[in-house]
Amino acid sequence: MAEGYEDWLAKLEEESRAKQEQFLDGIAMRLKRPRVKDKPPHPFRGAPASWNAFEWSGEERIRRFAENVEGVGGHAVRLADMEEVKRFVVKKVGEHGAKRVIMQNRPELTVLDLASSLPDVQLFVWNSDPEERWIVRAAEADIGIVIADYGVAYTGSMVIRSSENQGRSISLLPEVLMAI
């Protein structure tokens, strides 16, 4: 019985491969080019050796990150401590005329105590009320405030993790993003 089962599986495999070949031949024909059947050479594994040239100092990384952020239309400001961050955020919220601000529910941000400094602004802290529709709040917000978990100096990209207290929508839906 096992031999019949193996024969049956081999036949199915053969039929499947024939259909796959026919399908790929049809695509090549429609594209009017020969079908490539050989695997392309893969001369290296992992990141290319040229990436090892990016042994930048901490100051160089910060400078390059700021240049790349500004190169795509963002603004980068280096601040000494969270008190300066608070003053900067309050100033920018005022300059933008923001009426609604949403921020991550993280200790680093709640220590800023923005509610007392922004009495005329509706300040929402992500997931602080289980009844609230947080994605709607993020979409309505003028400014979203997050802590960036990582910055990529080479591209100016930021990694902002999502979790129960750090909704992804905070960084995507408001008109302005402030990443600290």
Number of continuous helical runs:
7
Average of pLDDT: 90
Structural class by secondary-structure content: alpha/beta
Order of SSEs: HHHEHHEHEEEHE
Strand order of the largest sheet: 2-1-3-6
The strand count comes to 6
Largest sheet: 4 strands, parallel
The low-confidence parts are: none
- Distance between the ends: 67 Å
How would you sum up the global shape?
Answer: elongated
Percent of residues in beta strands: 5-15%
Folded structure, characterized:
This protein has 180 residues and is α/β, with parallel strands linked by helices. The protein has seven helices and six strands; from the N terminus they run αααβααβαβββαβ. The radius of gyration is 26 Å and the shape is elongated.
What secondary-structure arrangement, pairings included, does this model have?
Layout: H1 2-31, H2 58-71, H3 82-96, E1 100-103, H4 107-110, H5 114-117, E2 122-125, H6 134-140, E3 143-146, E4 150-152, E5 157-159, H7 169-172, E6 176-179
Parallel strand pairs: 1-2, 1-3, 3-6
Antiparallel strand pairs: 4-5
Features:
about 180 residues; alpha/beta; four-stranded parallel beta sheet; 7 helices; 6 strands; about 10% strand; elongated
Short description:
The chain is α/β, with parallel strands linked by helices and 180 residues long. It has helices spanning 2-31, 58-71, 82-96, 107-110, 114-117, 134-140, 169-172; strands at 100-103, 122-125, 143-146, 150-152, 157-159, 176-179. The protein is elongated and about 75 Å long.
